[in-house]
Specification:
Structural class: alpha+beta
Radius of gyration: 42 Å
Largest sheet: 5 strands, mixed
Helix content: 40-55%
Mean pLDDT: 79
Number of strands: 7
Low-confidence stretches: 1-7, 56-61, 390-406
Distance between the termini: 83 Å
Order of helices and strands: HHHHHEHEEHEEHEE
Number of helices: 8
């Protein structure tokens, strides 16, 4: 049997809404303050000299029994009148207090409804907002310093961030689907062309297999990049002490076979201890250096440095190359965003710098991106200092000063 079926029919249930609780609070406060005022007033009246009683004294009154009897009767009547006046005062004041308590409860109900009206408006508008109309806002009216307006503005800001996140997710899914479909289509086309040949030779079949393997490797790299991006954005990973100089050294050794011979590499590494995921930081540095290699013109240069900038561990990658418009720099950190083929080596998927941004955000690191001195980009990533390290001039922010290259 359900809980509702077990309840008596017609049972009245009070809905303890915020309006009812505020009304009861207003009424209780008025009742307590009114009762206190009534008690103080009653005590003042009782303790006043005019309420102490009446004494009749006359010359030689104690020797005249008749006078004493009249005086006692007058005192008795006066005391009875005083007591009756006090009871009347207490009774009528109590009745007035009860009436005013009821009136204050009604006024409290009206005022609570008026105060909570913006909350009801926000609730109704918020119920109408879903994933399909996140562009709508509460748009609460009122002065800027009003608490309820601030609450509405805060909720509007949350909706704006959710709207941007949903749009980014939709764009990411569409772009990822397109990027994954392209190699699959190409792979299928290569195989269909090979099958259309009625009498293929071994050389042709070998070329088809090599081409198919290359396309599959491209797919594998894309999927690995997508997984890295997703794991970085989740922010769930094990942290450990690490040195950016050691990480960069390992990454440069791994990328040495792929480095173009016509590009000069300048390396200046100083200790930069921090904390984080070694594998993710390695991926960040790999993408930075790989991006620099991909977009550096022949006979260009790449400079990689690590060290402490104002006590903050940083890694900096600068390369020469085509000029990047300053207004286009933020879009480079969006997934699948490319600024055309700025180099003959630009064969990536457009995920390199977006992965860098995701890894930096997961490590609470700060990225500063500027135009390079000879085209290209000047990218500095500042990581939080290791907790067990003490520096002479700790600074949570990256210094804007740039050390000269040596």
């Amino acid at each position: 049997m359900s809980a509702t079926a077990s309840e008596p029919a017609g049972r009245f249930r009070i809905r303890w809404s915020a309006r009812l609780r505020l009304t009861l609070l207003y009424g209780t406060l008025f009742l307590v303050s009114g009762a206190t005022l009534l008690a103080v007033t009653y005590l003042l009246v009782v303790q006043s000299p005019a309420s102490k009683g009446t004494k009749i004294t006359t010359l030689n009154a104690s020797r005249n029994p008749a006078v004493q009897e009249i005086s006692g009767q007058i005192s008795y009547v006066a005391d009875r009148q005083r007591q009756e006046a006090q009871r009347t005062l207490l009774t009528r004041s109590g009745i007035a207090l009860g009436v005013m308590t009821g009136v204050s409860g009604g006024l409290g109900w009206l005022m609570a409804g008026r105060v909570l009206r913006p909350v009801r408006v926000m609730t109704e508008r918020a119920r109408r907002i879903s994933a399909h109309n996140l562009h709508e806002r509460l748009a609460m009216p009122g002065p800027a310093d009003d608490e309820l307006k601030n609450l509405g503005d805060t909720f509007d800001g949350l909706l704006a961030r959710l709207d941007a996140a949903f749009d980014a997710q939709r764009r990411f899914v569409a772009n990822a689907s397109h990027e994954l479909r392209t190699p699959l289509t190409l792979q299928r086309t290569v195989i269909e062309v090979a099958l259309s040949n009625p009498d293929p030779d071994v050389k042709a079949l070998r070329a088809v297999c090599e081409r198919t393997l290359a396309i599959g490797e491209d797919q594998n790299q894309l999927i690995e990049a997508l997984l890295t991006l997703a794991s970085s954005q989740s922010g769930v990973f094990q942290t450990e002490p690490l040195d950016l100089a050691e990480v960069v050294t390992g990454v440069l050794d791994d990328l040495a076979p792929t480095r173009p011979e016509d590009v000069t590499l300048h390396v200046k590494l100083a200790p930069a201890p921090t904390e984080g995921s070694t594998s993710l930081v390695e991926r960040l540095v790999t993408n930075l250096v790989g991006n620099a290699q991909r977009y550096t013109h022949p006979d260009g240069w790449i400079r990689v440095t690590t060290g402490l900038d104002g006590g903050v561990p940083t890694v900096r990658v600068v390369n020469s190359g085509p000029v990047v418009p300053r207004e286009a720099i933020p879009s480079l950190y969006q997934p699948f965003q490319r600024l055309g083929h700025r180099s003959a080596r630009a064969d990536g998927h457009g995920l390199g710098l977006s992965i860098v941004a995701a890894i930096a955000s997961a490590h609470r690191a700060r990225i500063v991106t500027e135009q390079g001195p000879e085209g290209g980009l000047d990218i500095t990533v500042a990581f939080p200092a290791r907790r067990d390290e003490l520096y002479e001039t700790p600074d949570p922010h990256l210094s804007s000063a740039r050390a000269p290259w040596r």
